[in-house]
Amino acid sequence: AFAFVLPSKSFVHTKMGDELSDQEKLEITSRFLLSSPPGEFLDVLTDVRGLVSNDQLLNQNALNVFKTYNVDQMITATLPDGKKTLVTKFGEIDGENYLDPFTKQVFTFDHVKSSVTSVRAATSEEIIDELEPFRVAAEVGIVAYLKMFYDEAASCAVYANRNDKGENAIVACISGCKLSPQNFWNGRWRSTWTMVLNDAKTEAKVTGVLKLLVHYYEDGNVQMTSSKQLSDTWTFSGSEAAGETIAKGIWTLENAWQASLETNHQQMNTSAFKALRRKIPVTGTKFPWEKQAYKLARELTDRS
Fold first, then answer.
1. How many beta carbons lie within 10 A of that of residue 73, not counting itself?
2. What are the Cα distances from residue 181, in Å, to 94, 218, 245?
3. What are the tens digits of pLDDT across the range 119-138?
4. Which pLDDT score, from 0 to 100, does residue 302 have?
5. Strand, coil or helix: 83
6. What number of other Cβ atoms are within 10 A of residue 106's Cβ?
7. Prediction pTM value
8. Is residue 252 scored above 70 in pLDDT?
9. In whole angstroms, what is the distance from residue 142 CA to residue 230 CA?
């Protein structure tokens, strides 16, 4: 885990001067936008527009940046019936159409407006029937897991997939966003679980990628990003029991990582952050506050 302070506006303005080419400006602004904290993409976009003062230039890469950000963050999409799903690379049919495996629908997503514009039934080519019973079992287990341990803002999508080697796999994506601008912080949790099944579907080699991003901006501007890749092997007695096994496996690994994050942050507070401050001034002597307090109070009174 690490934290960093974003550059000040004056620094960025200097770097965005006329000495940079249009391509360099696009690359810099794209990095800023793709680093936007949860719920703050449009705020960063507004600042970037003010720095560049050239909407025509920004529009050259706008759609690609919006799409890349939405897919990377696995943002939530709300279907016309109110059902929530995720926009992910695993469900991508093309640049604007995505599969919702739960409803077996393909929805068209407007990346600029972050809204669903239309839906249609998924075709047989877009559904792997062979894996559907296993996928549904995994989905039932993960949905129950989210209801038990996640906030209502979290959503999931569980896909049947075949990797580059032709192996059958189940991919579960979880994304939860918590926005608290009134308290000057926002955050998002993302996890992706890829389960490569053996031919008998009794065992899965599991790879999990967990990501956490929190932005705190009261009297400062700090982002904390953490990520972790995990691996495990899970065994199943059948597709019906797979959901419970998968949910338990995800809970075990996610809970362990969350506990390690809390431990690390406590250690940082008591050791690393404390070490950043000098125990005594540069002079090597402590300041005599007791002796100076009366003198300081008298000087302030005289000045007033």
1. 21
2. 34, 10, 37
3. 999 999 999 999 999 999 99
4. 72
5. coil
6. 19
7. 0.82
8. yes
9. 18
